[in-house]
């Protein structure tokens, strides 16, 4: 345990310059890096970094790539809002001598758009796409600790404007025992090499940490994740929502400021729970507080922030599904992982 805390301190100290320049959504480019497509991760409330439940989680923490993922092909797809399609595919391989390696592509297709000038003249259609090919490497300094890195290339095309850059993720995963695991990752350390026009923009740096624990005498496992630890205040109050603030919001009130501080802390947090129905089937439920607050409609009751999912993890394959509420809409995600070595071994038999 002393070793893991030492490595966490080294990671945080080495990232202090990046933390000082941190940017989040709305102030950064390439937010494709933060779009969640994994059904398992989505069902658990967010980008979990401490649960090696599925091989498609390595996009969010490269240290979750373990030897158990070797020779596994993973495909994920999400039908997002307004005809936007998000997908990812990856293949993991490796050996005990060199460590674990995976490669994949994360992409977003924003669909087709009608192009008009300021006078209403029609000029046809254009498309917009983001592509993130990546390579993941992880190794095990000992039987409990895994250290991993993601190397990501980024290409973005928005009509006639293109941009490209690179990103690096550094992560650690500590599997204490069958009942407890910890994870920490620094995502999106990189640079925009070519801007869309003339202005260079920062990447959405995200320092995240999480803990996953299973109850000893119940078929329940919980995951708790904190995101954007590099930036305390993630609050955004739209002009519309200001109409619904309490009357004393602009006065000095101890109760009000305490409420604001609690709200700011919870906007970093997401929580997920797995109900282990059997050795191969588990039901998942998650809640993301920040998503719920940002997508709330003041005049309507919604289930924003809530997500549900199902995972069937068989010997040769796994199937996953999730649904999440985004304001009044529902977004569905699907995933499949094929354990190729088991399939080919069965075929030869």
Structure description:
With 349 residues, the protein is mainly β. The protein has 6 helices and 14 strands. The protein has one domain: Porin. Strands 1-2-3-4-5-6-7-8-9-10-11-12-13-14 form a 14-stranded antiparallel β-barrel. The N terminus is likely disordered. β13 and β14 form a beta hairpin. 15% of the residues lie in helices and 46% in strands.
What characteristics describe this protein?
6 helices, 14-stranded antiparallel β-barrel, mainly beta, 349 residues, Porin
Q: Give the count of helical stretches.
A: 6
Question: What class, by secondary structure content?
Answer: mainly beta
CATH topology: Porin
**CATH superfamily caption:** monomeric porin ompg
Taking strands numbered 1, 2, ... along the chain, how are they ordered across the largest sheet?
Answer: 1-2-3-4-5-6-7-8-9-10-11-12-13-14
CATH-derived architecture: Beta Barrel
Span between termini: 44 Å
Map the helices and strands.
Layout: H1 2-14, H2 16-20, H3 39-43, E1 72-79, E2 85-95, E3 99-116, E4 122-139, E5 145-158, E6 161-177, E7 180-194, E8 206-214, E9 220-226, H4 254-266, E10 269-276, E11 281-288, H5 289-294, E12 306-313, E13 317-326, E14 329-339, H6 340-348
């Amino acid at each position: 345990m002393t070793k893991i805390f030492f490595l966490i301190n080294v990671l945080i100290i080495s990232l202090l310059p990046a933390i000082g320049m941190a940017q989040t959504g709305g102030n950064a480019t390439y937010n494709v890096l933060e779009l969640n497509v994994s059904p398992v991760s989505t069902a658990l409330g967010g980008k979990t970094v401490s649960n090696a439940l599925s091989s498609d989680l390595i996009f969010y923490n490269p240290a979750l790539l373990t030897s158990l993922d070797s020779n596994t092909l993973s495909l994920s797809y999400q039908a997002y809002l307004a005809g936007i399609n998000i997908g990812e595919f990856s293949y993991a391989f490796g050996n005990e001598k060199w460590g674990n390696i995976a490669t994949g592509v994360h992409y977003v297709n924003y669909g087709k758009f009608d192009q008009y000038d300021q006078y209403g003249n029609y000029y046809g259609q254009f498309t917009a796409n983001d592509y993130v090919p990546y390579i993941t490497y992880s190794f095990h300094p000992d039987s409990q600790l895994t250290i991993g890195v993601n190397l990501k290339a980024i290409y973005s095309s928005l009509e006639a404007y293109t941009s490209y850059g690179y990103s690096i993720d550094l992560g650690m995963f500590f599997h204490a025992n069958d009942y407890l695991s910890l994870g920490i990752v620094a995502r999106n350390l990189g640079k925009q090499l070519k801007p869309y026009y003339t202005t260079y923009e920062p990447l959405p740096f995200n320092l995240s940490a999480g803990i996953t624990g299973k109850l000893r005498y119940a078929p329940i496992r919980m995951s708790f994740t904190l995101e954007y630890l590099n930036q305390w205040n993630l609050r955004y109050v739209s002009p519309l929502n200001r109409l619904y603030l309490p009357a004393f919001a602009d006065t000095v009130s101890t109760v009000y400021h305490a409420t604001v501080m609690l709200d700011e802390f919870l906007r970093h947090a997401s929580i997920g729970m797995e109900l282990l129905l059997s050795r191969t089937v588990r039901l998942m439920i998650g809640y993301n507080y920040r998503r719920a607050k940002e997508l709330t409609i003041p005049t309507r009751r919604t289930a924003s922030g809530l997500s549900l999912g199902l995972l069937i993890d068989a010997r040769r394959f796994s199937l996953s599904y999730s649904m999440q509420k985004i304001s009044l809409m529902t977004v569905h995600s699907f995933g499949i992982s094929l354990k190729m070595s088991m399939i080919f071994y069965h075929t030869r038999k």
